[in-house]
Amino acid sequence: MSDDLRDLYQEVILDHGKRPRNFRQIDNASHHAHGHNPLCGDQLVVYLALDEKGIVQDVSFIGKGCAISTASASLMTEVVKGKTEAQAKQLFERFHAMCTGEAAQPAPGLEDDLERLEVLSGVREFPSRVKCATLAWHTMTAAIEGKDQISTED
């Protein structure tokens, strides 16, 4: 990772970690799930308000966790709002691949969102932190699928 990218990675994590976006409960949530990362103790709840067409009208989270977990949840809420359930899942799959260094299929129409998330790809240099970065995403996917809770150990 270049020094410039590493600096940006640290800045984004600090900014979103200290001032998370969409850190609140949605009273009219149609979906929600509890997520837990036993490795470092991160716990959160992701709330989604989906309309009848399956479009994310609102998304938020509450909980406590490390700076990486909080920053990732904050960024996730910003990029999945306005997306369909299928697009939200695609973003998760591509983001997970980005964090683990796995190959991923192109995601037509989601390139800008993935570029925005690229700043968190630095976690792949710290394998124990990948679960921190992907916890909110696993939890969002669980909520869409109607599961009440998920653990990074599942």
Helix and strand arrangement:
Blueprint: H1 3-18, E1 31-37, E2 42-50, E3 56-64, H2 67-80, H3 85-100, H4 111-117, H5 130-144, E4 149-151
Parallel strand pairs: 1-4
Antiparallel strand pairs: 1-2, 2-3
Helix pairs in contact: 1-2, 2-5, 3-5
Could you name the ranges where pLDDT drops below 50 across 5 or more consecutive residues?
none
Portion of residues in beta strands equals 15-25%
Distance, first to last CA: 30 Å
The largest sheet is:
4 strands, mixed
Tell me how many strands there are.
4
Structure in words:
There is one protein chain. The protein has a 4-stranded mixed β-sheet, with helices on one face. Strand 1 (31-37) and strand 2 (42-50) form a beta hairpin. By secondary structure, it is α+β, with helices and mostly antiparallel strands. Helices cover 44% and strands 18% of the residues. Helix 2 packs parallel to helix 5 (130-144) and helix 3 (85-100) packs antiparallel against helix 5 (130-144). It contains 5 helices and 4 strands; from the N terminus they run H-E-E-E-H-H-H-H-E. The relative contact order is 0.21.
Give structural attributes.
154 residues; 5 helices; alpha+beta
In short:
The chain is of the alpha+beta class. It contains five helices and four strands; from the N terminus they run αβββααααβ.
